C-alpha cells in the first residue's frame, strides 16, 4: 500500500532535520568545489581523467538499487508481509556493501599510487568529499542492518513501521547526495 | 494517483534512474566534454534527484512545506554548480 497524502514526510520528523543539515553541508561542499574549480580548470580537468568512472557507475547503480530494495521493503511491511520485507532489506544491505567494497578498492588504489589530500587541490576535494560520503554510507549500512534485525524479530508491522521509514529516509538522503556527487566529480569538465 | 498505478510507478522510476545513470556513463566514456555536455549531465542528475525525492523518499505525497525540502536543495545546488561551470567555460 502507498502513503496517502500526509502533512509530514515518512518516519520520525527528527530525521528530517538531520536530512536538512546533511544536505546543507554537502550542498555547500559541492558549490565550493564548483567555484574553486573556476581558478584551476585545467588542473581539475587533467586529474579528473585519472579517476575510474566504471567504479563510479557501479557504485551509483549499487546505491540506487539499494534504495529501490528499501522501497520494496517498506511496501512489503505496509502490505503485512514481514518475510518479504526482511528479504528486501537483506538485499539492500548487500548493495550497500557492494558500494563500500568498490569504494574501498578505489581508495586503496589511490593510496598505493601515493595520492593523498596534499597531492593537489582536485584530489583534496575528491578525497574529502568521497570519504565524507563513504562514512555516511557506512552509517547507512549500520542503520539498514539494525532495521533488518528488528524486522526479522517481528518488530515492524503494517500499523507500526515508523522506525523503518525513519531509517529509509536517511538511506535515501545518502543516495540523493551521491546523485549530484557522481556527475560533479567524475563527469563534468 | 490510484494505489495500483502508484505501486507500478516506483518500478518505472528505478528503471529511469538506472537508464539516466548509464546515459551519463556513456557520455563520460565518449570523451566529449564542454559546457553543454556538462549542463546536460547535470540536468540528468537534477531529474534523477527529483524522481528519488518524489517516489523513493515519498515527498510527492506530503502536503506541507516539507514536500519542497529536496526540491529546493536540488534546484539551488545544481543551479549554482551550473553557474560556476558556465563562468569557467
Please render the helix and strand layout as text.
The complex is a heterodimer of chains A (189) and B (89).
Chain A: H1 13-37, H2 41-48, H3 53-78, H4 82-112, H5 121-152, H6 162-187
Chain B: H1 3-29, H2 35-56, H3 69-87
Helix pairs in contact in B: 1-2, 2-3
How far is it from the N-terminal to the C-terminal residue of chain B, by CA? 43 Å
How large is the count of helical segments of chain B? Answer: 3
In terms of DSSP E residues, the strand content of chain A is: under 5%
Order of helices and strands of chain A: HHHHHH
The rounded distance between the terminal residues' Cα atoms of chain A is 43 Å
| Estimated share of beta-strand residues of chain B | under 5%
Folded structure, characterized:
The complex is a heterodimer of chains A (189) and B (89). Chain A is mostly helical and 189 residues long. Chain A has helices spanning 13-37, 41-48, 53-78, 82-112, 121-152, 162-187. In chain A, α4 runs antiparallel to α5 (121-152). The longest helix of chain A has 32 residues, at 121-152. Chain A starts with 12 loop residues before the first helix and ends with a helix. In chain A, 42% of the residues are buried. Chain B has 89 residues and is mainly alpha-helical. Chain B has helices at 3-29, 35-56, 69-87. The termini of chain B are far apart. Chains A and B meet through α1, α3 and α6 of A and α1, α2 and α3 of B.
What are the salient characteristics of this protein?
heterodimer; A: about 190 residues; mainly alpha; 6 helices; B: about 90 residues; 3 helices; about 75% helix
Write a short abstract of this structure.
The complex is a heterodimer of chains A (189) and B (89). With 189 residues, chain A is mainly α. Chain A has helices spanning 13-37, 41-48, 53-78, 82-112, 121-152, 162-187.
Amino acid at each position: 500500500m502507498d502513503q496517502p497524502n500526509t502533512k509530514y514526510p515518512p518516519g520520525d520528523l527528527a530525521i528530517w532535520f538531520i536530512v536538512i543539515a546533511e544536505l546543507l553541508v554537502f550542498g555547500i561542499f559541492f558549490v565550493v568545489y564548483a567555484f574553486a574549480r573556476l581558478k584551476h580548470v585545467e588542473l581539475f580537468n587533467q586529474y579528473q581523467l585519472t579517476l575510474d568512472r566504471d567504479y563510479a557507475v557501479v557504485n551509483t547503480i549499487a546505491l540506487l538499487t539499494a534504495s529501490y530494495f528499501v522501497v520494496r521493503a517498506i511496501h512489503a511491511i505496509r502490505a503485512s508481509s514481514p518475510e518479504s520485507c526482511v528479504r528486501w532489506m537483506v538485499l539492500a544491505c548487500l548493495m550497500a556493501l557492494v558500494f563500500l567494497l568498490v569504494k574501498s578498492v578505489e581508495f586503496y588504489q589511490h593510496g598505493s599510487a601515493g595520492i593523498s589530500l596534499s597531492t593537489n587541490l582536485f584530489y583534496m576535494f575528491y578525497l574529502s568529499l568521497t570519504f565524507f560520503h563513504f562514512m555516511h554510507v557506512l552509517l547507512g549500512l549500520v542503520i539498514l542492518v539494525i532495521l533488518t534485525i528488528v524486522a526479522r524479530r517481528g518488530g515492524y508491522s503494517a500499523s507500526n513501521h515508523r522506525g523503518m521509514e525513519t531509517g529509509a529516509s536517511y538511506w535515501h538522503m545518502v543516495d540523493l547526495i551521491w546523485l549530484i556527487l557522481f556527475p560533479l566529480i567524475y563527469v563534468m569538465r | 494517483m490510484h494505489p495500483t498505478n502508484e505501486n507500478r510507478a516506483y518500478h518505472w522510476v528505478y528503471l529511469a534512474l538506472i537508464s539516466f545513470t548509464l546515459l551519463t556513463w556513456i557520455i563520460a566514456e565518449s570523451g566529449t566534454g564542454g559546457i553543454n555536455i556538462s549542463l546536460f549531465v547535470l540536468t540528468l542528475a537534477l531529474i534523477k534527484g527529483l524522481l528519488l525525492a518524489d517516489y523513493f523518499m515519498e515527498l510527492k505525497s506530503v502536503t506541507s512545506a516539507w514536500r519542497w525540502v529536496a526540491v529546493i536543495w536540488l534546484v539551488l545546488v545544481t543551479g549554482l554548480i551550473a553557474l560556476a561551470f558556465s563562468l569557467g567555460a
